[in-house]
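Renewal narrative, Specific Aim 1. Our central claim is that a sequence can be written position by position from structural information alone. The example that follows is taken directly from our test logs and has not been curated for this report. It begins with the structure tokens describing the chain, in the order in which they were read.
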């Protein structure tokens, strides 16, 4: 089975690529067509780019626009590069941003997000955390991951959820990712009941599940 390359291009990485991006993007029209087709760019984006007076200025403006769309737009960006035959730019991407994936559903992302706590005075409601969940879910779903969300769990329920997920077979997965989002104390994550789950306990659970 051929491995698919999964790209995650950070803003910092793309900024370092600026000079080479301008140098090697020799068919900007084809790239713009592909990027418009896959939703990476809008018609307004393209009109702004093409209003620049020369080719290099167009490429620099394109770079500025793409910078704002990464890392979420990594897959669409690389797809547009491939379809417009800009393999030189792809080879310049940091190899650390590429991870070989062979399964259609690459793996699981487990999200535990505690928002409201029993003792609101000691542990205020984590307003806005739903936006973080939404962003993470959108990103990993686009990369063909199965996202599992657990909300407002006690310390015991968090441990049970981690045990459950760790016990699942990884035979048909390339990758397993876990996000723990809650209030914390030194060496611990806090459940909605105010009880603490030690990170050492979580590490032991995950290590036991590793083949």
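The sequence written for that structure reads:
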């Amino acid at each position: 089975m051929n491995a698919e390359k999964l790209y995650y291009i950070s803003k910092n990485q793309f900024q370092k690529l600026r000079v080479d991006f301008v140098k090697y993007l020799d068919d900007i029209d084809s790239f713009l067509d592909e990027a418009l087709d896959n939703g990476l760019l809008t018609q307004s984006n393209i009109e702004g780019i093409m209003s620049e007076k020369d080719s290099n200025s167009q490429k620099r403006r394109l770079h500025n626009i793409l910078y704002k769309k990464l890392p979420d737009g990594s897959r669409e960006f690389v797809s547009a590069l491939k379809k417009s035959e800009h393999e030189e730019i792809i080879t310049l991407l940091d190899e650390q941003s590429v991870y070989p994936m062979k399964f259609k559903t690459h793996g699981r992302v487990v999200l535990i997000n505690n928002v409201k706590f029993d003792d609101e005075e000691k542990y205020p409601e984590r307003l806005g955390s739903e936006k973080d969940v939404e962003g993470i879910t959108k990103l990993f779903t686009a990369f063909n991951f199965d996202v599992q969300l657990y909300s407002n769990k006690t310390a015991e329920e968090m441990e049970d959820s981690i045990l459950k997920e760790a016990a699942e077979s990884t035979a048909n997965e390339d990758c397993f990712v876990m996000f723990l989002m809650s209030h914390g104390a030194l060496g611990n994550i806090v459940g909605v009941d105010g009880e603490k789950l030690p990170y050492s306990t979580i590490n032991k659970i995950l290590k036991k599940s590793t083949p």
